[in-house]
Amino acid sequence: MKIAILSTFYPLRGGIATYGAALLSALEKEGHVVKAFTFSRQYPDFLFPGKSQYITEEDNVEKIASEEVLDSINPITYYTTAKKIKAFKPDVLITQFWMSFFGPSVGTVAKLLKKDCITLSILHNVIPHEGRFFDKPFTKYYLNQHHCFVTMSDVVEKDLRSYESEKPSLVRAHPLYNHFGDPQNQEEAQLKLGVESDKKTLLFFGFIREYKGLDILIKTFDQLDDSYQLLIAGEVYGSFDSYMQLIQENRNKERIHIFNQYISDQEVGDYFSVADVCVLPYKSATQSGITSIALHFEVPLIATDMGGLKELIINGETGEIVPSATVEDLKRGIDTFFINDPQQYKSKIVELKKEMSWENFAAHLEDFIFKLKRK
Asked: Where in this chain does the record put each Glycosyltransferase subfamily 4-like N-terminal domain (predicted)?
Protein backbone atom coordinates (compact mmCIF):
# COMPACT_ATOMS: atom_id res chain seq x y z
CA MET A 1 0.00 0.00 0.00
CA LYS A 2 0.89 3.64 -0.37
CA ILE A 3 0.40 5.33 3.00
CA ALA A 4 0.56 9.04 3.81
CA ILE A 5 1.02 10.06 7.44
CA LEU A 6 0.08 13.58 8.48
CA SER A 7 1.51 14.24 11.93
CA THR A 8 4.30 15.97 13.75
CA PHE A 9 7.68 14.76 12.53
CA TYR A 10 11.28 15.96 12.65
CA PRO A 11 12.25 18.77 13.12
CA LEU A 12 9.36 19.03 15.62
CA ARG A 13 9.97 17.40 18.99
CA GLY A 14 7.80 15.54 21.47
CA GLY A 15 5.98 12.27 21.99
CA ILE A 16 3.66 12.55 18.98
CA ALA A 17 6.63 13.06 16.66
CA THR A 18 8.39 10.09 18.26
CA TYR A 19 5.28 7.97 17.77
CA GLY A 20 4.94 9.01 14.13
CA ALA A 21 8.56 8.16 13.36
CA ALA A 22 8.28 4.72 14.96
CA LEU A 23 5.03 3.99 13.11
CA LEU A 24 6.45 5.07 9.77
CA SER A 25 9.50 2.85 10.22
CA ALA A 26 7.38 -0.16 11.22
CA LEU A 27 5.07 0.25 8.22
CA GLU A 28 8.05 0.50 5.87
CA LYS A 29 9.40 -2.75 7.30
CA GLU A 30 6.03 -4.32 6.39
CA GLY A 31 6.79 -3.41 2.78
CA HIS A 32 4.55 -0.36 2.37
CA VAL A 33 5.51 2.88 0.62
CA VAL A 34 5.12 5.56 3.29
CA LYS A 35 5.46 9.33 3.03
CA ALA A 36 5.47 11.78 5.93
CA PHE A 37 3.76 15.18 5.90
CA THR A 38 4.11 17.56 8.82
CA PHE A 39 3.48 21.09 10.04
CA SER A 40 5.21 24.19 8.75
CA ARG A 41 3.84 25.73 11.93
CA GLN A 42 2.42 23.52 14.68
CA TYR A 43 1.51 26.20 17.23
CA PRO A 44 1.92 29.96 17.24
CA ASP A 45 4.77 30.61 19.66
CA PHE A 46 2.53 32.42 22.13
CA LEU A 47 0.35 29.32 22.49
CA PHE A 48 3.20 26.88 23.05
CA PRO A 49 3.75 26.27 26.79
CA GLY A 50 7.25 24.77 26.56
CA LYS A 51 10.60 26.30 25.65
CA SER A 52 10.84 25.10 22.06
CA GLN A 53 8.74 23.15 19.58
CA TYR A 54 11.82 22.14 17.64
CA ILE A 55 14.65 19.67 17.91
CA THR A 56 17.96 21.24 18.97
CA GLU A 57 21.49 20.32 17.96
CA GLU A 58 21.85 18.35 21.20
CA ASP A 59 18.91 16.05 20.38
CA ASN A 60 19.79 12.73 18.83
CA VAL A 61 16.64 11.73 16.96
CA GLU A 62 15.70 9.88 13.82
CA LYS A 63 15.59 12.52 11.09
CA ILE A 64 12.47 11.47 9.26
CA ALA A 65 12.24 13.09 5.83
CA SER A 66 8.92 14.92 5.66
CA GLU A 67 7.19 17.71 3.76
CA GLU A 68 6.57 20.70 6.03
CA VAL A 69 3.27 21.86 4.60
CA LEU A 70 0.48 22.44 7.15
CA ASP A 71 0.15 25.66 9.12
CA SER A 72 -2.36 25.01 11.90
CA ILE A 73 -3.74 28.57 11.80
CA ASN A 74 -3.56 29.30 8.07
CA PRO A 75 -6.61 27.82 6.27
CA ILE A 76 -5.00 28.27 2.84
CA THR A 77 -2.45 25.60 3.78
CA TYR A 78 -5.23 23.14 4.61
CA TYR A 79 -6.00 23.03 0.89
CA THR A 80 -2.40 23.09 -0.34
CA THR A 81 -1.55 20.26 2.06
CA ALA A 82 -4.44 18.16 0.76
CA LYS A 83 -3.32 18.85 -2.81
CA LYS A 84 0.22 17.66 -2.08
CA ILE A 85 -0.99 14.51 -0.34
CA LYS A 86 -3.36 13.78 -3.25
CA ALA A 87 -0.42 14.02 -5.65
CA PHE A 88 1.19 11.13 -3.73
CA LYS A 89 -1.97 9.06 -4.49
CA PRO A 90 -2.13 7.23 -1.16
CA ASP A 91 -4.37 4.27 -0.45
CA VAL A 92 -4.57 5.41 3.17
CA LEU A 93 -4.09 8.71 5.01
CA ILE A 94 -3.12 8.23 8.66
CA THR A 95 -3.46 11.19 11.00
CA GLN A 96 -2.88 11.53 14.74
CA PHE A 97 -5.18 13.29 17.20
CA TRP A 98 -4.08 14.40 20.64
CA MET A 99 -5.55 17.89 20.99
CA SER A 100 -8.75 19.47 19.68
CA PHE A 101 -6.80 22.56 18.59
CA PHE A 102 -5.78 20.58 15.48
CA GLY A 103 -9.34 19.56 14.63
CA PRO A 104 -9.93 22.27 12.00
CA SER A 105 -6.56 21.97 10.25
CA VAL A 106 -5.98 18.21 10.15
CA GLY A 107 -9.72 17.55 9.95
CA THR A 108 -10.08 19.69 6.83
CA VAL A 109 -7.19 17.92 5.12
CA ALA A 110 -8.86 14.57 5.88
CA LYS A 111 -12.20 15.92 4.58
CA LEU A 112 -10.60 16.88 1.26
CA LEU A 113 -9.07 13.40 0.90
CA LYS A 114 -11.74 11.05 2.20
CA LYS A 115 -13.27 10.47 -1.23
CA ASP A 116 -9.88 9.44 -2.62
CA CYS A 117 -8.53 7.14 0.10
CA ILE A 118 -9.20 5.63 3.50
CA THR A 119 -8.77 8.25 6.23
CA LEU A 120 -7.66 6.67 9.50
CA SER A 121 -6.94 8.51 12.73
CA ILE A 122 -4.84 7.29 15.64
CA LEU A 123 -6.50 8.78 18.71
CA HIS A 124 -4.19 9.46 21.66
CA ASN A 125 -6.97 11.36 23.44
CA VAL A 126 -10.53 12.22 22.53
CA ILE A 127 -11.58 14.09 25.67
CA PRO A 128 -8.69 16.37 26.71
CA HIS A 129 -7.02 16.48 30.11
CA GLU A 130 -7.35 20.26 30.21
CA GLY A 131 -10.67 21.37 28.69
CA ARG A 132 -11.30 24.37 26.42
CA PHE A 133 -14.51 25.87 25.09
CA PHE A 134 -13.86 24.66 21.53
CA ASP A 135 -13.12 21.02 22.38
CA LYS A 136 -16.48 19.50 21.46
CA PRO A 137 -17.12 21.19 18.10
CA PHE A 138 -13.50 20.83 16.93
CA THR A 139 -13.32 17.16 17.98
CA LYS A 140 -16.66 16.32 16.39
CA TYR A 141 -15.64 17.99 13.15
CA TYR A 142 -12.35 16.11 13.10
CA LEU A 143 -13.88 12.69 13.78
CA ASN A 144 -16.51 13.21 11.08
CA GLN A 145 -13.79 13.44 8.42
CA HIS A 146 -12.33 9.98 9.12
CA HIS A 147 -13.52 6.56 8.04
CA CYS A 148 -11.97 4.64 10.94
CA PHE A 149 -9.88 4.92 14.08
CA VAL A 150 -7.22 3.31 16.22
CA THR A 151 -7.37 3.78 19.99
CA MET A 152 -4.76 2.60 22.46
CA SER A 153 -6.93 1.95 25.50
CA ASP A 154 -10.49 0.96 26.31
CA VAL A 155 -10.98 4.37 27.93
CA VAL A 156 -10.21 6.25 24.72
CA GLU A 157 -12.39 3.79 22.81
CA LYS A 158 -15.26 4.62 25.17
CA ASP A 159 -14.62 8.35 24.71
CA LEU A 160 -14.67 7.87 20.94
CA ARG A 161 -18.05 6.14 21.16
CA SER A 162 -19.48 9.13 23.02
CA TYR A 163 -18.98 11.04 19.75
CA GLU A 164 -19.11 8.33 17.10
CA SER A 165 -21.00 5.05 17.53
CA GLU A 166 -20.83 3.48 14.07
CA LYS A 167 -17.45 3.80 12.44
CA PRO A 168 -14.98 0.90 12.83
CA SER A 169 -12.06 1.10 15.22
CA LEU A 170 -9.14 -1.00 16.37
CA VAL A 171 -8.01 -1.09 20.00
CA ARG A 172 -4.29 -1.84 20.37
CA ALA A 173 -2.11 -0.85 23.31
CA HIS A 174 0.68 1.70 22.81
CA PRO A 175 3.74 -0.15 21.44
CA LEU A 176 6.99 0.02 23.37
CA TYR A 177 9.53 2.53 22.11
CA ASN A 178 12.82 0.89 21.18
CA HIS A 179 14.84 3.75 19.70
CA PHE A 180 16.23 4.97 23.04
CA GLY A 181 18.86 2.24 23.04
CA ASP A 182 19.74 -0.25 25.74
CA PRO A 183 19.93 0.49 29.48
CA GLN A 184 23.13 2.23 30.52
CA ASN A 185 25.60 1.03 33.11
CA GLN A 186 23.84 1.96 36.35
CA GLU A 187 26.93 3.21 38.19
CA GLU A 188 28.01 5.36 35.24
CA ALA A 189 24.50 6.80 34.90
CA GLN A 190 24.38 7.58 38.62
CA LEU A 191 27.68 9.46 38.39
CA LYS A 192 26.56 11.33 35.27
CA LEU A 193 23.34 12.49 36.94
CA GLY A 194 24.92 13.12 40.34
CA VAL A 195 22.54 10.86 42.26
CA GLU A 196 23.23 8.50 45.12
CA SER A 197 23.88 4.81 44.50
CA ASP A 198 22.51 3.43 47.79
CA LYS A 199 18.96 4.82 47.65
CA LYS A 200 15.64 3.46 46.43
CA THR A 201 15.13 5.62 43.37
CA LEU A 202 11.75 6.98 42.28
CA LEU A 203 11.55 8.60 38.84
CA PHE A 204 9.01 11.14 37.59
CA PHE A 205 9.66 11.52 33.87
CA GLY A 206 8.25 13.55 31.00
CA PHE A 207 6.63 16.91 30.35
CA ILE A 208 5.36 18.40 33.61
CA ARG A 209 1.71 19.39 33.42
CA GLU A 210 -0.80 19.95 36.21
CA TYR A 211 -2.86 16.81 35.52
CA LYS A 212 0.21 14.58 35.89
CA GLY A 213 0.20 15.00 39.66
CA LEU A 214 3.83 15.87 40.38
CA ASP A 215 2.59 17.90 43.35
CA ILE A 216 1.07 14.72 44.84
CA LEU A 217 4.34 12.84 44.40
CA ILE A 218 6.38 15.60 46.05
CA LYS A 219 3.99 15.64 49.03
CA THR A 220 4.20 11.83 49.22
CA PHE A 221 7.98 11.95 49.19
CA ASP A 222 7.81 14.08 52.32
CA GLN A 223 6.30 11.02 54.08
CA LEU A 224 9.10 8.61 53.09
CA ASP A 225 12.21 7.76 55.07
CA ASP A 226 15.79 8.59 54.13
CA SER A 227 16.30 5.37 52.15
CA TYR A 228 14.61 7.01 49.14
CA GLN A 229 15.55 9.59 46.54
CA LEU A 230 13.33 11.23 43.91
CA LEU A 231 14.33 12.26 40.38
CA ILE A 232 12.15 14.80 38.55
CA ALA A 233 13.13 14.80 34.89
CA GLY A 234 11.26 16.82 32.28
CA GLU A 235 10.39 20.25 30.96
CA VAL A 236 7.58 22.08 32.72
CA TYR A 237 4.63 23.41 30.72
CA GLY A 238 4.01 26.73 32.43
CA SER A 239 5.73 27.63 35.69
CA PHE A 240 7.75 25.39 38.02
CA ASP A 241 7.31 27.81 40.94
CA SER A 242 4.52 25.94 42.75
CA TYR A 243 6.49 22.68 42.58
CA MET A 244 9.65 24.39 43.82
CA GLN A 245 7.77 25.77 46.79
CA LEU A 246 6.60 22.26 47.71
CA ILE A 247 10.17 21.01 47.33
CA GLN A 248 11.56 23.76 49.56
CA GLU A 249 9.00 22.86 52.25
CA ASN A 250 9.77 19.13 51.94
CA ARG A 251 11.73 17.60 54.84
CA ASN A 252 13.46 15.32 52.31
CA LYS A 253 14.35 18.10 49.86
CA GLU A 254 18.07 17.22 49.90
CA ARG A 255 17.23 13.93 48.18
CA ILE A 256 15.09 15.45 45.43
CA HIS A 257 17.07 15.80 42.21
CA ILE A 258 15.57 18.25 39.70
CA PHE A 259 16.21 18.11 35.94
CA ASN A 260 13.67 20.69 34.78
CA GLN A 261 14.57 20.54 31.09
CA TYR A 262 13.70 18.82 27.86
CA ILE A 263 15.29 15.36 27.95
CA SER A 264 16.80 14.46 24.58
CA ASP A 265 16.48 10.93 23.23
CA GLN A 266 20.10 10.04 23.91
CA GLU A 267 19.71 11.09 27.57
CA VAL A 268 16.55 9.08 28.30
CA GLY A 269 18.43 5.86 29.05
CA ASP A 270 20.44 7.53 31.84
CA TYR A 271 17.32 8.35 33.87
CA PHE A 272 15.66 4.96 33.50
CA SER A 273 18.94 3.17 34.17
CA VAL A 274 19.15 4.65 37.68
CA ALA A 275 15.45 4.20 38.49
CA ASP A 276 14.00 1.38 40.57
CA VAL A 277 10.49 2.43 39.60
CA CYS A 278 8.80 5.08 37.46
CA VAL A 279 5.89 6.86 39.16
CA LEU A 280 2.84 8.20 37.29
CA PRO A 281 0.70 9.97 39.93
CA TYR A 282 -1.74 11.20 37.28
CA LYS A 283 -4.94 12.98 38.28
CA SER A 284 -6.40 12.14 34.86
CA ALA A 285 -5.14 10.03 31.97
CA THR A 286 -6.00 8.02 28.89
CA GLN A 287 -2.73 6.24 28.28
CA SER A 288 0.86 7.42 28.58
CA GLY A 289 3.87 7.13 26.30
CA ILE A 290 6.00 7.17 29.45
CA THR A 291 4.65 3.70 30.23
CA SER A 292 6.07 2.31 27.01
CA ILE A 293 9.46 3.96 27.61
CA ALA A 294 9.68 2.52 31.13
CA LEU A 295 8.69 -0.96 30.00
CA HIS A 296 11.24 -0.80 27.17
CA PHE A 297 13.93 -0.25 29.82
CA GLU A 298 12.29 -2.97 31.97
CA VAL A 299 11.53 -0.46 34.73
CA PRO A 300 8.31 -1.21 36.67
CA LEU A 301 5.72 1.50 37.26
CA ILE A 302 3.49 2.79 40.04
CA ALA A 303 0.45 4.63 38.70
CA THR A 304 -2.95 5.88 39.71
CA ASP A 305 -6.05 4.06 38.52
CA MET A 306 -6.71 6.50 35.69
CA GLY A 307 -7.72 5.86 32.11
CA GLY A 308 -5.94 3.02 30.38
CA LEU A 309 -2.82 3.00 32.55
CA LYS A 310 -3.78 -0.27 34.23
CA GLU A 311 -4.00 -2.08 30.90
CA LEU A 312 -0.20 -2.39 30.87
CA ILE A 313 0.57 -1.74 34.54
CA ILE A 314 -0.67 -4.87 36.25
CA ASN A 315 -0.62 -5.14 40.04
CA GLY A 316 2.18 -7.38 41.25
CA GLU A 317 3.36 -8.06 37.70
CA THR A 318 4.54 -5.00 35.76
CA GLY A 319 3.99 -2.56 38.63
CA GLU A 320 1.41 -1.33 41.08
CA ILE A 321 -1.86 0.54 40.52
CA VAL A 322 -3.12 2.76 43.35
CA PRO A 323 -6.79 3.79 43.66
CA SER A 324 -6.42 7.56 43.46
CA ALA A 325 -4.03 10.50 43.26
CA THR A 326 -3.71 11.02 47.01
CA VAL A 327 -0.68 11.01 49.27
CA GLU A 328 -2.08 8.08 51.26
CA ASP A 329 -2.71 5.86 48.24
CA LEU A 330 0.55 6.71 46.53
CA LYS A 331 2.61 6.04 49.67
CA ARG A 332 0.84 2.72 50.11
CA GLY A 333 1.70 1.78 46.53
CA ILE A 334 5.36 2.71 46.99
CA ASP A 335 5.56 0.71 50.22
CA THR A 336 3.99 -2.32 48.54
CA PHE A 337 6.33 -2.13 45.58
CA PHE A 338 9.50 -2.14 47.68
CA ILE A 339 8.25 -4.90 49.99
CA ASN A 340 8.03 -7.17 46.93
CA ASP A 341 10.98 -8.57 44.99
CA PRO A 342 11.81 -6.13 42.14
CA GLN A 343 12.85 -9.07 39.96
CA GLN A 344 9.29 -10.39 39.94
CA TYR A 345 8.25 -7.26 38.09
CA LYS A 346 11.12 -7.37 35.61
CA SER A 347 10.46 -10.97 34.58
CA LYS A 348 6.82 -10.12 33.75
CA ILE A 349 7.90 -7.05 31.80
CA VAL A 350 10.24 -9.15 29.64
CA GLU A 351 7.27 -11.36 28.71
CA LEU A 352 5.10 -8.34 27.88
CA LYS A 353 7.76 -6.74 25.66
CA LYS A 354 7.50 -9.59 23.17
CA GLU A 355 3.84 -8.73 22.52
CA MET A 356 4.27 -4.96 22.39
CA SER A 357 6.61 -4.43 19.43
CA TRP A 358 6.02 -1.83 16.73
CA GLU A 359 6.21 -4.59 14.14
CA ASN A 360 3.32 -6.39 15.84
CA PHE A 361 1.35 -3.14 16.01
CA ALA A 362 1.96 -2.42 12.31
CA ALA A 363 0.86 -5.93 11.34
CA HIS A 364 -2.46 -5.54 13.21
CA LEU A 365 -2.95 -2.10 11.66
CA GLU A 366 -2.33 -3.55 8.21
CA ASP A 367 -4.90 -6.32 8.78
CA PHE A 368 -7.44 -3.74 9.97
CA ILE A 369 -6.96 -1.64 6.84
CA PHE A 370 -7.17 -4.62 4.49
CA LYS A 371 -10.47 -5.65 6.05
CA LEU A 372 -11.82 -2.15 5.46
CA LYS A 373 -10.65 -2.17 1.83
CA ARG A 374 -12.47 -5.45 1.19
CA LYS A 375 -15.81 -4.02 2.35
From this structure: 14-164
